[in-house]
Amino acid sequence: MIVHIVDAEKFLNKTIEIFESIFPNQNYFLVGVEEGEGSYNKKEELIKLTSIEFVEINRKDYYEKFHHNVDQNTLVIFHNLYKTYKLKLIANIQAKIKIAWYFWGAELYGLNPKINNLLPLTQRVYFKNLPFWTYIKKKVFSQLKKQYYWDLFKKALKDKVDYTITNVTEDIDLLDEFTENNSKRGWFTYYSSDMNRELERGSSKKINILIGNSSSETNNHFDAFQLFNEKNIQGKKIYIPLSYGDNKYRELVIKEADFIFGEKAEPLVDFLSTKEYSKIIDSCSVLIMNHKRQQAYNTIMIAIANGCKVYLREENTIFKLLKREGFYVYSIQSDWSKSTEIEMLDIKIQEYNRELIRKLYSTNVVRSRIKAQVLEIFNE
Known about the structure:
alpha/beta
């Protein structure tokens, strides 16, 4: 039995789909629910599919269920370690039990107090508009809290974790610069090409632009908006997904977008269905992700599959990954300023990128690689 330590969030369904297809009836999913979070909207449907329990974290019954299931099995997979309750759990796992951790990114970019994910303009606007006590909390208390949990994370990585699994090995390269890491490297991703099935490819109206993926300040929206100072955006809509994240930051972004783009700005503040979101991506010729850190991987891949010209920052490990794998993606620092026109990606390059996605990330390829990886961990 594989024990999965997961959360009631957007990748839960995909996690179950992947592992139940590869190892049917050999998984147990302990889903941590935040206090006051309410019931997961597909809870009853998922309970019928597999062995799964939804339990509020930081309660006695959660820890009892955790130890009952972990102690009698040989492999536990933590789907992210940036949730701080998981760092406390991992410290008490018996040495005989193998631990694999799927590296989401926030463990490094969110917990590490030495990493700054903000670009100058966004940082200045964001902190300037914080209420005084919120500012003090973020600049002082938040840093102290980060250091505490970063130390717990480093200890877990040194003494407990057997495998760090991700397809973005560049994240592990960066992680190793900051801490001792005794885990072995492994491969895993939630993404596969079937996630593109809602896309209506071949649209002849790819003229719009999409910026960022959320109302998190790590999108660096204010710096991204400055990229358009000398660009021709006549006849284009500027879509800005802001449906989750920081509410105060969302208000600032909407105000700035309206000031710079006027009626062309299209903030997306409501959650959209996959089909609705896909239609918006299908109308876009360009996707701009101004993150310094790894973020929005699935959205980036869906955009590439849809023929978008994707611009990323060079320090972003996703940019490095996609370049290594052979995709045509473009640098914000080096490529964006080459022309005042915002041009659609050449049709031949669009198809090349799509074919590479089919080759590297088809459902069969992804599941085959994950199965081989899990069996390697079991058989070691």
